[in-house]
Amino acid sequence: MTGGATPVVELIAALTRNVENFPEPGVQFKDLTPLFADGPGLAAVTDALAGLASGADLVAGIDSRGFLLAGAVATRLGTGVLAVRKGGKLPPPVHAERYDLEYGSATLEIPADGIELSGRSVAIIDDVLATGGTMAAAARLLRRAGADVTAAAVVVELTALGGRQALAPLPVHSLSLA
After folding, report:
1. Which residues does UniProt call coiled coil (predicted)?
2. DSSP 17
């Protein structure tokens, strides 16, 4: 995103609920649920993200809000969608990537069988970019499975947390900055 406010930025701002001290004290949670529940808001965000992911063979959404967005974007682009799941949610065999969060650690997984990722161009979609740990883990996981991760796109980027640096040199696109 560059320049002044656009209609999609204004929709995001108007329909985002800011929750203080969640999930722990000192954290301000960006709840995009009202945005997703608003038909015109969801359509505008989907269209904007689809423009950023254009050219990808596959759209990967990160558990769980990224699933909603990635499915909608993949439908707009006429591609498939891949759910990048939290650990323990998929039957084996899986490709897994452990990573650190701002308040703990976690594992992401994708199926090791049934989906050929080698040589496929993949765009990663999620709702919020904070420290970048989850999205960087997803990118590593997809690359290790043979995918060519071409871009990452989010609805809101929390710029003060420096998540973009964790993903460099991967191009990161944000619809709104906070």
Report:
1. none
2. E
Calculate the alpha carbon distances from 19 to 24, 27, 103 in Å: 11, 8, 17
Rounded CA separation 107/101 (Å): 10
**Which pTM does this prediction carry?**
0.93
pLDDT at residue number 24 = 84
Give the pair of three-digit tokens for residue 45.
């965000």
Q: What is the DSSP letter of 95?
A: E
Residue ranges in the chain modelled with pLDDT below 50: 1-2
Whole-number Å distance between alpha carbons of 87 and 47: 30
Cβ–Cβ under 8 Å, residues 139 and 154: no
The structural domains of the chain, ordered by start, are 8-177 (3.40.50.2020)
Catalytic residue numbers? 65, 102
